[in-house]
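Budget justification aside, the reviewers requested a transparent look at the raw inputs and outputs of the sequence design task funded under Objective 1. We therefore reproduce one unedited record. The lines immediately below are the structure tokens for a 358-residue chain.
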């Protein structure tokens, strides 16, 4: 067999790097167990020799590819079926996988110490990561595999291609519309970090929030508050543990029960906005006459409820993430598209509207 066609073995890489075969194997499959300098020595030797990397499946090793993408979730597996927007994102990925003849493997992150090794050893050709925090050790493990990796929503980090809308600008536009005539604005928020703790906050500095989507949307809401002359510290932020209408309804009920007056409410998803709508109705508060309300995603449910919302396509973002993970060209380079869709939940009396336009 000619040198051009002969596949370089892991034993040769180990010898060239001056390490044992087990150490070379761990550098790819369990990178957290190998010192960074040693890993880099193994990778440098592999690059010099033209080593393509060990495949987790011997049967597919001879073909050089598994023809499978891995979707890394910082949630339980049921999340992709329970959350409508997550389902649409996965559907976009699945469509591209089907067209390319690829499979899709769901890889949940459980918080266990072996998460990085388990994810890095997954039998996949490339990774798509559902949004996480910058300090998530799984990101370092994926980066060390030198496989293509795409991340949805952030963080924007070396070694990963970022897919998602410009959340800060979208949130600013939503809040500016919802709070246009509000004297007592409030927020229903996604979780702040991987602990998923619920709670009520005031004066929260967005820069301290680990989850990038939550951080950027809070920053956009703060921008809108500052532009409207509203004291950010006075705006209550009801953080939900999960992105569900039930959690949002409970959070808004607690907010009102605590004595907070609310006449303009922004939510980080339509699911949350619909839950908020239910809680407001239970409290005898109608939209838009008493409380203006808006959310994110422009879902069918938001249209039915006549809710103002930020339009984005999680399906299109999932499809784009899959194309990038498959190594396709990216004609849609940059952030994905969004727009504000105004509906009755932020409609204002004609006199108010004329005053704002004058």
């Amino acid at each position: 067999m000619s040198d051009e066609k002969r596949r370089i073995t892991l034993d040769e890489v180990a010898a060239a790097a001056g390490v044992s075969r087990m150490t070379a194997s761990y550098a790819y499959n369990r990178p957290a167990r190998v010192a960074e300098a040693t890993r880099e020595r193994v990778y440098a030797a592999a690059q010099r020799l033209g080593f393509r990397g060990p495949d987790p499946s011997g049967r597919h090793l001879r073909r050089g590819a598994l023809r499978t993408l891995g979707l890394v979730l910082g949630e339980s597996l049921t999340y992709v079926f329970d959350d409508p927007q997550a389902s649409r994102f996965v559907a976009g990925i699945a469509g591209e996988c089907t067209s390319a003849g690829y499979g899709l493997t769901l890889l949940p992150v459980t918080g266990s110490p072996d998460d990085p090794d388990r994810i890095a050893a997954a039998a996949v050709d490339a990774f798509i990561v559902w949004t996480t925090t910058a300090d998530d050790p799984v990101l370092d493990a994926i980066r060390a595999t030198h496989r293509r990796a795409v991340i949805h929503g952030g963080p924007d980090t070396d070694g990963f291609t970022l897919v998602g809308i410009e959340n800060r600008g979208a949130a600013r536009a939503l809040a500016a519309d919802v709070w246009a005539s509000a004297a007592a604005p409030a927020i229903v928020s996604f979780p702040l970090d991987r602990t998923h703790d619920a709670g009520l906050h005031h004066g929260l500095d967005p820069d301290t929030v680990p989850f990038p989507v939550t951080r950027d949307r809070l920053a956009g809401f703060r921008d809108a508050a500052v532009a409207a002359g509203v004291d950010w510290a006075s705006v209550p932020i009801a953080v939900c543990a999960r992105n569900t209408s039930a959690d949002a309804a409970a959070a808004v009920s607690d907010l009102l029960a605590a004595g907070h007056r609310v006449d303009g409410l922004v939510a980080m998803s339509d699911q949350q906005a619909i839950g908020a709508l239910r809680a407001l109705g239970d409290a005898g508060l109608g939209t838009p006459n008493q409380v203006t309300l808006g959310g994110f995603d422009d879902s069918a449910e938001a249209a039915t409820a006549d809710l103002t919302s930020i339009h984005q396509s999680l399906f299109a973002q999932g499809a784009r993430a899959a194309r990038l993970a498959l190594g396709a060209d990216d004609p849609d380079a940059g952030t994905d598209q969004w727009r504000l869709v105004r509906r009755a939940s932020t409609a204002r009396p004609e006199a108010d509207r004329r005053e704002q336009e004058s």
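Residues 103 and 353 are 52 Å apart (CA to CA). The chain has three domains: 10-54, 61-163, 167-311+337-357. Computational costs for records of this kind are itemized in the attached budget.
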